[in-house]
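agent: user wants the structure for Prenyltransferase from Salibacter halophilus. delegating to structure tool.
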Amino acid sequence: MNKLLNFFLFSNLYVLLVIAALIGCTQLAVIGETQVNDTVWFILFSTLALYPAHRLYGVIRSKSSRLVERVYFMNDYKTVLAVIVLIGLAGTGYFFLELSWEQQKKVFIPSFLGLAYSFPVIPVNGKFIRLRDLPYIKVFAISAVVSYLTTVFLPVTEMLNSSASWGLFFKRFFFLLAITLPFDIRDLRVDKREGLRTIPNQMGVKVSKWISGIALFSYVLLALLFVALTDSEVILFVAQFITAAWVLFFLVRTKPNRSEYFYSFGFEGAAIVEVVLLLILVNLI
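agent: tool returned. relaying tokens verbatim.
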């Protein structure tokens, strides 16, 4: 059972559930229900392809396999990861062709940034590097790309005016920044060993936690403004406020030596907490 749970987390299949939860949060906030369409399938299959590919590439090139449990564990599952990536790529290609031309154009830049995050495709000083190799960029790149795909890119946001749609984007961006930055605290030793300059290993854990806290406060503030300016149900803010409290509970307890479960369920799990709260409250009211 423990091996199955570890594979679910370390292969990043768990991230697929988190992305689905983020999509559900957007749909519930805008129309009060969840729906599945070609755009949703495209995002999910892209996640299925990219995240395990990122993990597989990391396993192959990592200098820190003895330091990191997840990298050491996934060494035994490289073939399975490759199969998951191939399934994800097949689904991504199929549903990309099902998108409208406008949707295809809108996803080009985010797709490139997603690839550039994990693989060396950016030319710098005569060599190719990854987006995550650039100083301090990692958490902001993840937050921006995932925020765009799970808000503005979704057809459901076309029901909103431009200001409200981008308001959703920035609210999601601050939420993801708040829950992503702690993972750099988790990876403090590994990132130093790999030569990555991140906020925690350059500015320290305390400053990183403050930045994450400020992002979380910004998320709550924008959640309140979104409800006020769009006449949305107050239950939307209630769910998001409780979710923010959940994140804060784990944030104040964050240390580099916390377990993988602490980070995965505490921070990534916050998206699942929010969508579950929304589903319960929407059906109760």
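agent: one observation worth passing along. The two ends are 38 Å apart (CA to CA).
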